[in-house]
Amino acid sequence: MAKTPITVRGMELLRAELQRLKTQERPRIITAIAEARAHGDLSENAEYAAARERQGFVEGRIAEIESKLANAQVIDPKLLHADGRCVFGATVDLEGEEGAPVTYQIVGEDEADIKSGRLSVTSPIARALIGREAGDAVDVQTPGGVKRYEILDVRYE
After folding, report:
1. SS3 content of the chain, % helix, strand, coil (to 5)
2. Domain ranges in the chain?
């Protein structure tokens, strides 16, 4: 299976979520199932059905996170020597057509959050930026049409 790139921060977030699910959510669900069983007939017990459904979701998420961690390739942007090019983990300052500067960090799919300035490496903007340098202009095909950005700076933080 191919390795999936992830930043150090992304790896820490996944590990923290996994730890929370295993140490807090699992025991809470087991207790809820035990309490629901104590109420008698399981065929008409909505509390039991809800607890089992929640258990299925949590166990599925645990398996998903464990799989992602097993296939992760951690990339620390501070250790990159990309000679000013946009690469995975880089923080990029852009100026859009409107003249307003924006800053994005190119991250893995699981840690992407546009409101926090983290773009998925698979997003149209990130794909257009990869391999470019400060001073380059890029055209990005977005659902709203083609947008032009100028790369002001590339940092590895």
Report:
1. 45, 25, 25
2. 4-74, 76-155
For the chain, the straight-line distance linking the first and the last C-alpha, in angstroms and rounded, comes to 29
- Give the sign of the dihedral formed by CA 87, CA 8, CA 91, CA 141: positive
pLDDT in tens, 19-43: 999 999 999 999 998 888 887 776 7
Residues in the chain: 157
Q: What is the pTM of this model?
A: 0.78
Class of domain 4-74: mainly alpha
CA 76 to CA 105: how far, in whole Å?
12
Q: 157 with 75: CB under 8 angstroms?
A: no
Longest Cα–Cα distance in the chain:
70
CATH architecture of 76-155: Roll (3.10)
CB atoms within 10 A of CB 143: 5
pLDDT tens digit sequence for 70-118:
999 998 887 877 788 899 999 999 998 787 899 999 999 888 998 999 9
